[in-house]
Protein 1
Amino acid sequence: MNRRHFLKTGAAATAVLAGMPMLTTGCRTSLRTRLMDGQPSTETKIPEMTADGYRILHYASLAPSGHNSQPWFVRIKDPDHWIIGLDTDRRLPVVDGNNTEALLSIGAFLENLVQAAAAHGYRVHTTIIAKDRFDPDFNPDLVSIRLEKTQPENMDLHRLTSRRTVKSHLSDRPLTPGDVSALSRLADGHLFYFPKNTTHADHMAEQAVANYIIQMKNRAAVQEMAKWTRLKDSTIKEHRDGLTPAGMEIQGLASWYVKYLMDPEDVTGQTFIDKGIEKTQHQAKEGAGWLVITGDGNSVADLIASGRRFQRMALEAKNRMIAIHPMSQTLEETSGRKSITENHSPGTIPHFMLRVGYLDKYPEPVSVRRPVEWFVRA
Ligand SMILES: Cc1cc2nc3c(=O)[nH]c(=O)nc-3n(C[C@H](O)[C@H](O)[C@H](O)COP(=O)(O)O)c2cc1C
């Protein structure tokens, strides 16, 4: 048995994967900045695009997405006319077979785009051009965007750069009615809060764990997760997407272990799967309960609208020191969806299930993004 194999299989491995306390790194540059080669350039590298356009798309790209797959592309028709589309190579066909999460993510991208455009002095006119996502001739062009020059609005773009998904250290202190109504307003009233220890919240926590276990028994779902997992810094820099150790909140010695001792195929192994289940069981118990964001329907327009509401709400949650953790496995699995719709008023269409809770300290973003020129098509 060589040294590497010994370390991989020994008790030490189990201990570190369980998540030991953070080791101080002494590194001042943020992890995201280091892995993304610094700040966005104001110099556009795309001939058809202005510096403002380039910066607006950089801010748009900071939107969240399932598995951090960043399923968007942008086609520049002319400097103020763009098409936003679904990059079909970035779909998650196993857990998101009908593109629900991809379209929700593109909605979040559009919300960031509109806010960044307002800050740069552009009003955005959007037209949904997609037909139906179940159409066999599904056209990946989704939204037509026209930018109209106007006065810059006083928008706080720091909210876009500092928001992140947060999965640890959520307080169980209930959300205040003031915070819930502020978030609900931004979600156009499509948001519902279920405080911890209520029947609904307990049910959502149980379902999150049960459906995570169902997925981890599905080889195809595990392999899809592995395909989007980036363990080493060199792989992260190469792809600038996917699930990284920092994004999965694997910290300290455990992070060192997964970066240097694990191979990509180990992500599909039983040890990693079991630790993921343990972590999910722990997470489902932590926090102040659950938010559900509902939609008006399941058309392309409905899903993009829900993604935009989610992102408006998530940006404000950050301001209020509220962690947002989407736990989508329940809505991805048929049995989970059925159980959630049966437990809510008839006609409820849940688009997001989010674990929430106040934070003492809002951690810095760590998930990486592709540079604008990687997702812009001429
Ligand atoms: C539609 C959607 C579904 C998501 N589902 C999950 C999920 O089931 N579990 C999870 O841990 N994170 C989930 N996320 C969060 C993403 O993993 C996260 O946004 C991505 O890794 C980028 O990280 P960031 O939000 O910190 O920028 C989801 C995000 C979106 C937009």
Note: The domain at 31-161+366-377 is CATH 3.40.109 (NADH Oxidase).
Protein 2
Amino acid sequence: MSDPQTVSKSLASRHALRNVKAFRRTLLGWFARNGADYPWRQTEDPYAILVSEIMLQQTTIGSVIQNRRFERFLDTFPGLHSLAEASEPDLLRAWEGLGYYNRVRNLQRAAQTILAEHEGAFPATPEGLESLPGVGRYTAGAIASFAFNYPAPIVDANVSRLLSRLFDWREQIQTSGSQTRLWSWAGQLLDSDQPRSFNSALMELGQTFCTPRSPACPQCPVRDFCATREPEKLPLKRTRRAPVKVDEHVLFVQKRSGPVLLAQEGGTRRKGLWRLPERSHHQLADLPLVDTRHYGITHHKVTMHIYHCNPSHVPPPGKRTTEKFYSAREINELPMPSPFRKAVQALLQA
Ligand code: SF4
């Protein structure tokens, strides 16, 4: 007797692929009636689409839309030249609050590469686009299909989830075998006459109906094509690393006339941004604690302890670092990670 899982998997594959034309018709019909009118869907400009794709890599659509981050970034850097020539502080300031600042550095490097090596013209194929800094297989497929209507498949987190349920795929999706399978399905399902609309529709279905925790199967437009009976259990993923708790001890030092002491970040992740200066807990243990805040970064849960310190008694930094006093007006212009921006604003208003 065959393994039930194998039977279910092969039925799932045959079922969906046998009806692929009907699937496309159904999906595209639903999208034509219900697709969201996101600002990056109102353009075919590859530069704007590159910006939106990089911005949406680790930031939710809701947050980008609500704060008009896409439009504001394009107002600041309307094209390749303005982005390629931007100073680092201006670049980081324009990305503030979105986190993962290497994304905007890569965006600038991509603009510089297009100007220097492609005479300012975007590559129009996934292979050409993948040669740009910060552009992986998904982003290349997205720009190729959304900007050039090129028949390139895309697989992001939403599409992975949707496909693994549609085909009832019961293997961990991070493995290379699963990735090959998912990309292959995305390619086979793709409507090569309408890749722009098809890829948008697939992503949107994943965002709106086929959600991670409570998929809306009874209302889903493609439910007749879907093989899984246990959508909540899919996709199978490796267990996540447990968040690591970190304590951060920082100083709030303000001169009588108002300027606040800030330190410039080194390292790689937030290099160039300004923040409250950090010291060891031991150095600050005798100072008054004025605020405690919490924020998350990658898999860290950070507790920020803020101590008040007199400008004439600032403990020396443990490592070489740039520290300077800035007025409130100057701080507004400096790039700063948003947890520090909020903390400084609250302390200045206290
Ligand atoms: S029927 Fe449910 S599990 Fe299947 S694609 Fe639709 S929302 Fe996802």
Note: Strands lie at 244-253, 260-264, 274-275, 289-297, 300-309, 323-326.
